[in-house]
Structures are given as structure tokens and as C-alpha cells.
Design goal:
Shape: elongated
Number of domains: 2
CATH architecture of the largest domain: Alpha-Beta Barrel
Number of strands: 21
Structural class: alpha/beta
CATH topology of the largest domain: TIM Barrel
CATH class of the largest domain: Alpha Beta
Radius of gyration: 24 Å
CATH superfamily of the largest domain: Alanine racemase
Helix content: 25-40%
Number of helices: 11
Amino acid sequence: MPNPRGAWIEVDLSAVADNVRALKALTAPKTLFMAVVKADGYGHGAVEVARAALQAKADRLGIATIDEGAELRAAGLESPIHLLSEPPAMGAQAVVEHRLTAALYSRDFAVALSRAATLTQRTVRFHLKVDSGMNRIGVKAEEAADFVESLRGLPGLEMEGVFTHFGTADVPGDWEFEHQLERFEEAIAQMRDRGMDPGIVHAANSPATILHPETHLDMVRCGIAIYGLLPSPECAAKVELRPAMSVKAKVSRVRRLAMGEGVSYGFTWHAPAPTTVATLPVGYADGYRRGLSNKARVLIGGVACRQVGRVCMDQFMVEVPRGLEVEAGDEAVLLGVQGSERVTADEQAELCDTINYEIACGFGLRLERRYMQAT
């Protein structure tokens, strides 16, 4: 069916698969690999990305919410699916129903999950989340062994693993990263000393997977890197990744302006001379951030065109360089490659004082996705 909007996202699933293989190559053969597909696959589409990652020999999938897990199960995916944070106690029955591996770190949720497991006569696996210093979620590292001990009387629960999350794995030489790792290792040692089997022990996110092989343990969890985006510049020397997302649109209108004419809300840009301006049918409601106004580049005909005027909710404008012929219907690249030019998520993130994660996730709002299948 033709796209009446004239704007879309292209996702190269071969890039996703290649990135998973490249990241797995950094780990030992027996190290498990979790592909994190929360937030609708960081804007790329959770189901399609999950399939491509599993085809590339990912072992497990990571999500943030029960609804995300339900979507993957409805699509027929049978691999282990991990909730990376604990849902409210009222969600325990849905965790059991969708066969999700729960993150667990509170007594209330543990009781609710035990009750749901008992009612359905199932044993439910969970991974204990240890707070090693990020102070976001989890059982404090020094209290982890006692917490596990307190769960012994709850039927239907099986601790399959223990995990933590690093706050500064992307910062070379950071002492707080080292301190987090030490706290986590001590928590695991205390469990073992008390006869507890921690099961699958995991801590490495994307930057730790790339930069800190000592953190690989039994499993790594990669999110941003499987989409071909680097969690920090230092990672570029360690692994070669390919961005999977491109954002494209058809020029909807071309107009010639006289010198001094303004463009868009607030007239924050005026034509410095007779100028051609092209309109694209994408705006901040689609994830093209308003913070890019008068800063960003768009590629048309393999040429970089400056974005001008404020980005609107549904469209924005670019200045057509002298000598470039542009017509309505021409393809523009907002993110990705055209000819020898490239616009990256990192470039847009820097302009908006944010991170490439937020740029990628934002484009999933309204735009149709088109998939290039993995090979």
C-alpha cells in the first residue's frame, strides 16, 4: 500500500543481525547474549528486531514492561524474555501468563508472584536485581543474601539469576564503575558462602560488553549497540557496528523566497538573499526534535541542506543550496546515508544536548517502518 504520508523509517535488519554477531564475537563461546528490545526496539520495532537478533544467535530478549513481553509472545517468540525491572504487584499474574522471567527486588512483588505461580501450579523463574550503587532499583548489594534467604518460604519461585546495572561503564577509568563491580562481586560471593546458587550472573550492558571483558560473566545484555549506535566514542575502536535506522521523506513543496522573507513560527530565520526552500512532511510529533531548529542537516540529491526556521509539529523546511535542483517528490534523508554524505543520530543528539538513544526512540512515534530483511 502506498504511503500517503510521504515519510518513513527504514530498518536494516541485516545490520541488526551483523551487530549481534560482532558483539557476540567479543565474548567467550559459552557467554549468553541478551538482546534488549524494550521501548519498541529503541524505535526500530521490537518484534522484527527480536527475530533478527535471535536469528543471529542471541539467546534471550530483554524488555521493560509486561505489555512489551506480551507483544513478543503474541508474535510467536518462544525464547526467554526478561523483564529488566520489577512491575507492580498487580502485574504478577500477567508475568506468569506470558511466561516472562521477572526481575525481583521487593517482598511485595515476591509474594504476589508466588501467589500467581501457586494458583497456576507453575514454577516461575526470576532474576534478583542487585543495586550495586546506581541507586535506581534493586536490593542493596550488602542486603542481597539476606533478601534471598527471606524468599525461601515462598512456593513457586526459582531464582535463575542475579544481575546489576552499571552507571558509568562508558567512562574509561571511572572509579565508580570499579566500585560497582566490586560491590556486585561481593554480593555474589556472600550468596555462595551461604550455600545459595546465584545461577546466571550478569552485569554487562552495551558499553561494558565492548570495553570491559571482565564484566561479561555468564551473560551480557546489549541494547543500543545492537542497533548500530555506540554508547560512547571510545567503543568505536573496539567493535565495528552498522546503524540499522534511516529516516526518509519525500519533499512535499518547493518555494522560492525573496530576500528577507521569514520561515516558520516566530520567523527565526529570514532568507539572506533570493532562496529556494523545500518543505518536508515530518515534525516533532514524528520524533524530529524541535531542538534541531536552524541547526540540523538533511540530505537531498546527495547534498547536505540546512534546516531553517522552527521545526513544526508535522513538517519542517530546508534551504536548498544554490545549484541544486529540487522538486516535490524528491527523496530526502533525515537520518542515514545518501551518496557520500551521512547524517547520524550522534550528530542530532549533540545538537539537541541529548544522547543517540533518545533520538532513535523518538522516531518511533508516527512514522511507518519499512524493513530490509536480515540475511
